[in-house]
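Note to self: keep these together.
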Amino acid sequence: MSKLDKILTHKVGGYVIMAVVLYLVFDCTFRFGAYPQHWIEVGITALCDYLNTALPQGWLTSLFVDGIVQGVGTVLSFLPNICILFILLSILEDSGYMARLGFLMDKIMHKLGLHGSSFVPMLVGFGCNVPAIIDARSIENPKDRTLTMLMIPFMSCSARLPVYLLFVSAFFAQYKALVMISLYLIGIVLSICFALIMKRTRWFRQDIEDPVHPLPPMTAPSFRHTGRHIWNHVKDYLQKIVTVIIWASVIIWALSYFPTHELETSYLAMIGQAIAPVFAPLGFDWQMVVCLLSGLPAKEAIVSTMGILAHGGGTLSVFTPLTAFGFMVFVLLYFPCVATITTLRKEIGRRWAWFTVIHSLLLAWLLSFAIYQIGSLF
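Structure:
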């Protein structure tokens, strides 16, 4: 092992370096992404104002402007932040540092009784849970393979990132990077706790092996590979906007516009108010509830729904730093997107897919409940 590897994988210093690197990654994401994000937001606002003036008033104009343009524009404004984040992550991966990070975490996972080979698919899960689950096919042991697939939804995929960026910028301006890191760490810690519990059940109890994984050499990042990596993420993001987000925005607009053209008496309000009592102990109002419902097919739709609600005269003033953090934790944990559940069902069966749906909802509710109730005491 080289001198650099000894520093990066040191049993104490390695974790300090890891914390500094992650902080710098998220700090740069916010710092450099704020400018293009602001330009896009200004452009979307100007476009909406122009269209409202140029087009005849009516439900069709409202659908196009308040539903599609405003909903999609809100999600699109976070694209620069996502690009910057994945540029930095791609550089860390190409340089070989991600492999050192995996080596560090591999030690921890073995001490906790978990299999080290699970960590690579979990890293992939920070980009998207679906390819991460597919990547876990390479794990030979069937019990380890199934457990790893069940752990992956705890990883904060890029679909959750726009929600984090919105709330962290609004409520934690002085601690953006730290709050972002805390959300990712919550997912990792909970996935480890989940695995520790499941390892003690009859489905996953077994002795683990301790394979040796050689570290690749540290190299200069490849601009070609980084560019291809970023393009793949941008393409996936734009494809989701063109498909899922547009349709979700249209549905949310229709429910918020009819039958009275007033948000407070709309079908959306009726749905949200009917379910709201379940979420009241978490400090969530009906508008927060419908945002969560819209995120079932894709988490980005939460942001587009907030844009539609705000543009339609709704108010999200119920949010405080406490409820905002609880809301982000709920988004982190509850119901993985439909594509993730479908992939789990194909890979490990319907029973485990339903298990993921149920335990994720319960865990999200309980943890957000604890955050709000305990936080309210101070």
